[in-house]
Specification:
The structure is a single chain. By secondary structure, this protein is mainly beta. The chain has three helices and 17 strands. Strands 1-3-4-5-6-7-8-9-10-11-12-13-14-15-16-17 form a 16-stranded antiparallel barrel.
Length: about 325
């Protein structure tokens, strides 16, 4: 009996040492809303939806101190649709892969981070960081970016990335390459920026050799300044695919009001001709019931040129040259 108690005590001591050296965190967001969308040429769409201000997700992340300033980390993040409970979001991939939002493992030191796996691409960070709606919901600036870009804009499989360490006087950056592995696309990209106090500015560029031929090039830059009574932001983006070019920009505001915040943005995309253009106006309000729970309402409106068809739900379910409008009211809880 005494030997058993001694063995348990020794095991407990080792477990305590291990837990002191590493940590694992369970986290998630549940975001659900009711949405109404009108689009010329199509029936009105009334749905229970998700991701109005944040993507719904369930994740696990952890870090282990290996000593000598070296750490190992992992991040596994699954997206889901709370209206059905199904796996969802995380890109245009329709398969039911589990950790489609992110699945990475890292080695971290004072010299930066090496990260491998499925991850966010550098050019996406400028869009979601400087978009007042965080590239979510009917106010998402991505609703009017060219559809050919959307499939390659957020995440990529089979990536190897390097991130600069913190403590460089506000400078930050990353580079990424992704292998095609015979069935995907080869990707290279990078991002660099500087943030100090109320100011943040960054630029990014990528090239991707697409399946079936062709090269997609994406370049963007974003900036924001927090005046205290409001935060102003802007984005400029250019894309090129097989000789076809797009240019777009966003100007946005975040205005804190008591326990809430007003979000507003104007986004425009212009193609090679004056008829291939789309303009989106978006306005929203988020009311924080606590640090983790918020109510929100967002409305948006899109005008398309005669060669464009963009709807406020991110689809092309609208006539060429048509208009689309919509709103959503929802609740978000983070844990």
């Amino acid at each position: 009996m005494k030997k058993s108690l001694l063995a348990l005590a020794v095991l407990g001591a080792f477990a305590g040492a291990a837990s002191a050296q590493s940590s694992v965190t369970l986290f998630g967001i549940v975001d659900a809303n009711v949405r109404y969308v009108q689009a010329d040429g199509f029936d009105d769409r009334k749905t229970v939806n998700t991701d109005g201000i944040n993507g719904s997700r369930l994740g696990f992340k952890g870090v282990e101190d290996l000593g000598g300033g070296l750490k190992a980390g992992f991040w596994l993040e699954a997206g889901f649709n709370p209206d059905t409970g199904n796996l969802g979001n995380g890109g245009t991939d329709s398969s039911n892969r589990l950790f489609r939002r992110r699945a990475t493992i890292s080695l971290i030191s004072n010299f930066g981070e090496i990260r491998l796996g499925r991850d966010y691409v550098p050019t996406f960070w400028n869009l979601t960081t400087f978009d007042p709606f965080g590239t979510n919901g009917v106010g998402n600036s991505g609703n009017v970016w060219h559809p050919a870009v959307a499939a390659n804009l957020v995440r990529h499989d089979n990536t190897v990335g390097y991130f600069l360490p913190s403590g460089l006087g506000g400078f930050y950056g990353q580079v990424m390459v992704a292998s095609s592995e015979g069935s995907g696309t080869h990707y290279t990209g990078g991002r660099g920026g500087w943030a100090a106090g109320a100011f943040d500015i960054a630029g990014a560029y990528s090239e991707e050799d697409l399946i079936g031929g062709g090269k997609l090039k994406v370049a963007n830059a974003g900036a924001s300044y927090d005046f205290g009574f409001l935060k102003a932001s802007g984005i400029y983006m250019e894309t090129s695919l097989n000789g076809y070019h797009n240019k777009g920009y966003l100007v946005g505001l975040n205005v804190p009001i008591g326990a809430g915040e007003i979000h507003a943005a104007y986004t425009q995309r212009d193609g090679d001709t004056s008829d291939d253009t789309a303009k989106q106006f978006a306005l929203g309000y988020v009311h924080n019931l606590s640090k983790r729970t918020a109510l929100y309402a967002t409305g948006s409106y899109i005008e398309n040129g005669s060669l464009a068809r963009h709807a406020v739900d991110g689809s092309t379910m609208v006539n060429f040259g048509g208009k689309s409008s919509g709103m959503e009211v929802g609740v978000r809880h983070a844990f």
